[in-house]
């Protein structure tokens, strides 16, 4: 893999608004698109055949280190509770010698082939495995560094305060290259929402890192934890640096308006995988209030769930189904959740189809964005950071 991409011209493609354009790419960046653009000197020319041009997709929340992607079927016989799943996974990974490096690489490459060029992955940090899983995912990030922009979240899947030593391990993970500090259910897992949140925010401030917290806690318990979290965002000045993932409580409360107003004012982002079996934050209401809400797969083919594929167009479709999005303009919202909104929520810079943006481009044979979300056609071409990384769903030798 080389870090320098050859100049490129994508010709005969259509923008989402239907405009025919050619897109020049130099040094991994988009130059001014237009209908009659001359190829940059020395450029490779790719004829898009009138295909729809989309920006590279963004996976806002997954767990690359856990996946069994491409491996033998895992027989799931785990109990129904969150703690059952946590303990089962920890025991199985230890007994099976689960290779987080190999599995994260396999899943990351599958994401790339399907058009995902930027990705945020949570990686388990606990007192059984230490930084072992992180080390594997760091290897994957390094291997794909020229073609996949990956953020790593140091995530205490087994809890933090209830497992002494985890807090220090999280600090070591941030020092070793994790980009974001994770957290998990301060009330129901750690049993001390005040102490857990205090420790999380102190650690984030110490290392100068943003926070992405899993908040599965339901109803009034979740609302109580969320209020405490928002208090700490305001007190520590971390506006714009916190994501609340899942936030099931916002879909369960009879009237979440006061919480949503604070979330909007403090510029806290929300992540949803749009699960069919749990309450979800109100998508359109959040957007109307200026809250960044975006999408992700969560786990894919792991001990938690047999479901999921590394295709963000499919996740956009599932978001559309969960939120009853049927109109074409509503389906464009579903796509925004796995594109621009996800880039904004995760803090991926220079995103889009404009001049100066990083050249992350996907071609599909579809009439419109809505058509692409519903039909999920094979990716005709994927360009990441200016490199052609996939054709017709298959990776090139650059990935």
CATH architecture of the largest domain: Alpha-Beta Barrel
How many E strands? Answer: 16
Class from helix and strand fractions: alpha/beta
Order the strands across the largest sheet as they lie in space.
3-2-1-4-13-14-15-16
The rough form would be described as globular
Number of domains as seen in the coordinates:
2
Largest sheet: 8 strands, mixed
Mean pLDDT: 96
| Distance N to C terminus | 7 Å
Write the H/E string, N to C. EEEEEHHEHEHEHEHEHHEHEHHHEHEEE
| CATH class value of the largest domain | Alpha Beta
Q: Can you summarize this structure?
A:
The chain is of the alpha/beta class.
Structure overview:
This is Cytosine/adenosine deaminase. GO terms for molecular function: hydrolase activity, acting on carbon-nitrogen (but not peptide) bonds, in cyclic amidines. InterPro entries: Amidohydro_3, Metal-dep_hydrolase_composite, Metal_Hydrolase, Metallo-hydrolase_Enzymes. The chain has 399 residues and is an alpha/beta fold. The chain folds into two domains: 93 residues, Urease, subunit C, domain 1; 290 residues, TIM Barrel. 35% of the residues lie in helices and 22% in strands. The protein is built from 13 helices and 16 strands. An eight-stranded mixed sheet has the order 3-2-1-4-13-14-15-16, with helices on one face. It has an eight-stranded parallel sheet with strand order 5-6-7-8-9-10-11-12, sandwiched between helices. It is globular. The N and C termini lie close together (7 Å). The mean pLDDT is 96.
